[in-house]
């Protein structure tokens, strides 16, 4: 099946710094990628929809200036957490829609961010 | 608005026993339905999906799910649980069109006792 890779898997940073998380579709082109956030023992909450070559669409309540999303190519979307604070610590998961109108999403392995 | 409900937060079953995880959805039409499994600290793995056709869907690892339109349900089942099945299970729904994100239920934690 299709493979989506995230990097880094784990990242620890100091409060006030920015962190970039990459999401790559390894064997297919993804015009649309989705970024989810998951708090411990909770479900995945959609943060934003990333479309190649255009601005991301953010869900209500998600600060677009804090969570910068760039989808510069058909195989790469990045999420940058700017001026990170401890409350931004979370598990961030990206997903990409496979080719064809099947509706199935393929998920990355997730990136765990800890802000000290 | 679409929503997914997983009524059971935590279920414990004995190894070798049967399993059923419940999922109900709210959507005007028949959506795409999915079950994913997540091990601690890991991403999500697709167990099975329903788009149309046969309402009993077979997935990986011996799982199956049955779509019941009249009950707006898509319950996940396995006849004999293995200790390695202990994980978090998420039911998800997407509208019957491309380009949209999945909406997830809150998940059910499965524990397997020996």
Structure report:
Chain A is mostly beta strands and 116 residues long. Chain A has no helices and eleven strands. Chain A has strands spanning 4-7, 10-13, 19-25, 32-38, 44-51, 57-58, 67-73, 76-81, 90-97, 105-107, 111-115. In chain A, the strands form two sheets. In chain A, strands 2, 4, 5, 6, 9, 10 and 11 form a seven-stranded mixed sheet that branches. Chain B is mainly beta and 114 residues long. Chain B is 0% helix and 51% strand. Chain B is built from no helices and twelve strands. In chain B, the strands form three sheets. In chain B, strands 2, 5, 6, 10, 11 and 12 form a six-stranded mixed sheet that branches. A four-stranded antiparallel sheet of chain B has the order 3-9-8-7, with no helix packed on it. In chain B, strands 1-4 form a two-stranded antiparallel ribbon. The radius of gyration of chain B is 14 Å and the shape is globular.
Q: In total, how many beta strands of chain B?
A: 12
How big a fraction of the residues of chain A is strand?
over 45%
Q: Helix fraction of chain B?
A: under 10%
What oligomerization state is this entry in? heterodimer
N-C termini distance of chain B: 41 Å
- Calculate the mean pLDDT score of chain B and round it: 91
Basic shape of chain B: globular
Distance between the termini of chain A: 37 Å
Percent of sequence in beta strands of chain B: over 45%
Provide a count of the helices of chain B: 0
Helical coverage of chain A, percent range: under 10%
**Number of helical stretches of at least 4 residues of chain A:** 0
The greatest interface here is:
A-B, 25 and 26 residues
What is the string of helix and strand elements of chain A?
Answer: EEEEEEEEEEE
| Weakly predicted, low-confidence segments of chain B | none
Shape of chain A: globular
Q: Strand tally of chain A, please? A: 11
Rg of chain A, nearest Å: 13 Å
């Amino acid at each position: 099946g299709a493979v989506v890779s995230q990097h880094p898997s784990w990242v620890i940073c100091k409060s006030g710094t920015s962190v970039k998380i990459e999401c790559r579709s390894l064997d297919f082109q993804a015009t649309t990628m989705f970024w989810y956030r998951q708090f411990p023992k909770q479900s995945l909450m959609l943060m934003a929809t990333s479309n190649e070559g255009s601005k991301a669409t953010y869900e209500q309540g998600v600060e677009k200036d804090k969570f910068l999303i760039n989808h510069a190519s058909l195989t790469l979307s990045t999420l940058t957490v700017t001026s990170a604070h401890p409350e931004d610590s979370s598990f961030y998961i990206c997903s990409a829609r496979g080719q064809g109108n099947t509706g199935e999403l393929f998920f990355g392995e997730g990136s765990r961010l800890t802000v000290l | 608005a679409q929503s997914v409900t997983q009524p059971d937060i935590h279920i414990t079953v004995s190894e070798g026993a049967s399993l059923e995880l419940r999922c109900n959805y709210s959507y005007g039409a028949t959506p795409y339905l999915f079950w994913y499994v997540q091990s601690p600290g890991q991403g999500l793995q697709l167990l099975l999906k329903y788009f149309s056709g046969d309402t009993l869907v077979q997935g990986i690892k011996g799982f199956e799910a049955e779509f019941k339109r009249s009950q707006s349900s898509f319950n996940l089942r396995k006849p004999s649980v293995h200790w390695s099945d202990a994980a978090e299970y998420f039911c998800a729904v997407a509208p019957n069109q491309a380009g949209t994100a999945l909406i997830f239920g809150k998940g059910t934690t499965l524990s397997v006792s020996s």
